[in-house]
């Protein structure tokens, strides 16, 4: 039995890793995402059980207490956190993952220091990488949470010589790490690089605007995976290495997708302090404000929607803030009753985390076949009678296609201006994250319906019911 146990653990790890890969594959589509989540969760359960059977585990009582406490917190959070606050939740989970990995490295360093055991070079390097990535992920994720939650400003926070200061911090970490390679038992230096890693996480995220949070969250998610993989090398656990590598790789791929959707490089997102946070008009928008805006009321909007043959709904962050997803689903149901074909157009960076709109619409039980990504829906706008834009701004701005002076020039957008008519629900004429006026609002085919997304959609539902 003792001979079989290590082999059985490794085989279980192999099964768990396979379930992780299959789960990630299924998470790529809204229709199979729930099943993918279950598959991955089963894989994680197998990995935890196998690890607990490992004879290197010394204190089952403390581990079980931690599992019970963590499970209770997780269940309560899952039920209490609103879907509109899911980006904040993801940010916190990324931070906790990074901190857990960093604590593994700190704990292993402390163990080797207290026992007087020699510190192998490979373990030492793994610990140094784990502390760096885990520390940056921990504090960076909590800053992202604070920006999303409104605890601190969502606008970029910068100061003179910020990048040279960051470079000095990184150089300090490298120098400290080099010192520890030659003198592994130096506790003050080790504690110093831990502090530097935490400061780097703060400095990494504060210059990034709230509108770039989808990229930041996916990148921090990748960092949490890389930190876990580094922790796996520290404790020599194959499952942790595999799981961390999968999370790290998938996070990097998602980050690349997000950057491509904004036509910006990752370096531009991280270091350009892009965006005004809305409200301010950036250079290149001059001349837009003297154009005419066509405003309608809910009754006129309901008639346009109710007598259309096809309607494409474009949800944006304004819908999320107003928590209007259930009202939107009710409107779609009423339009379906009248024989109107309804589809939803999802831009990759709409919202405050990857897949934010998909999550909100799934909560409202919107049928998966009605959800279309940008590449699939754009060719269909030419045949669409009405495009209903709810709280979206930069992702539907036609200036991205032709205005080379615009900050969003070249960014792939949803071609709602190609529809026969467009209705935009918005509180006012304030700009989006990029700080530029939206040409769509002044288009001859665009009708503005001013007000809260939830209130306006509810009025549309009421009016459509009377048709």
Automatic annotation (TrEMBL):
It holds the Pfam family PNTB. This is NAD(P) transhydrogenase subunit beta. The transhydrogenation between NADH and NADP is coupled to respiration and ATP hydrolysis and functions as a proton pump across the membrane. The keyword Iron does not apply. The chain crosses the membrane at residues 6-24, 36-53, 59-79, 91-113, 125-145, 165-182, 188-208, 215-234, 240-259, 266-286. SUPFAM superfamilies: DHS-like NAD/FAD-binding domain. Belongs to the PNT beta subunit family. Its EC number is 7.1.1.1. It is found in: Cell inner membrane. The lineage of its organism: Bacteria, Bacillati, Cyanobacteriota, Cyanophyceae, Oscillatoriophycideae. It is a multi-pass membrane protein. InterPro entries: DHS-like_NAD/FAD-binding_dom, NADH_DH_b, PNTB-like. It comes from Floridaenema fluviatile BLCC-F154. Residues 10-462 form the NADP transhydrogenase beta-like domain. Keywords: Cell inner membrane, Cell membrane, Membrane, NAD, NADP, Translocase, Transmembrane, Transmembrane helix. Signal peptide: none annotated. It catalyses: NAD(+) + NADPH + H(+)(in) = NADH + NADP(+) + H(+)(out). It is an enzyme of class 7 (translocase).
